[in-house]
Amino acid sequence: PSGELVRGDSVTLSCSSDSNPPAEISWFKGEKYVRSGRIYSISKISSDHSGEYKCRSRNKHGEKDSDAVILNVMC
């Protein structure tokens, strides 16, 4: 779920898909691609990490975005 974090905390976001064939998972902050893979971990979080995150699963049949998670880093 979305939530407030304190600077220096760590957070792990995970994304899963039960598609066939298996999907490739990508992570986005807003509209900007940040990394691929099922797990997105941020250690020593800072205010720069505040924002809206979502994962996108994609295979040959199409793509689907997750609901957004909003991280609010308190300084």
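^ that was protein a. below is b, sequence first then the tokens
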Amino acid sequence: MATFKKIDPANMAETANLVQVFNISPDSTEKKIVDFFQYCGDIIEYEIVPVENGFEALLLFDKASSVDTAVLLNNSRIDDRNIVVKKYDDAVKEAAATTETTEAAAAAAPSGTSKLANFIADTMVQAEQLSKSIDTKLGVTEKFQLLVEESKKLRDSVDAKYGISEKTAKATTAINTKIDEIKNNEK
């Protein structure tokens, strides 16, 4: 495990709001890492430290529920690596129970898409199916197209009654003529 200096979990009364991230690519930037986890919840403090062949990060969230969300990102991809995300307490317990390096832990992580990625993909498919079903039942697309057509007819009716297009064309011609006159007088 990396040695964190900025955030010292040993001095913290409550470590339930901490997440440790392993197997971060050496190509990953601090901004990219923080932005990646920011949607999980407010990050109060973080520390990213270099380790052999990359980085590890310790993130302190404002709520324990944010930690649960962040853990769902385990095996997600940042740059060229699938990251390993664990609750800090679990990571400490595992480190104490085994002498495996973080690279071995990352290699043991399941390959392929993460549970979160599968969940998002399934949810998107279900949302698309639901929207098509609702559209079929309620005729939303058809009603919207009718509304657009009615709006065009109203526009044409107002234009015909008040001659807006014709008046605009005449005004544009008059303005262009005046501009040409001014340009010719300047020469």
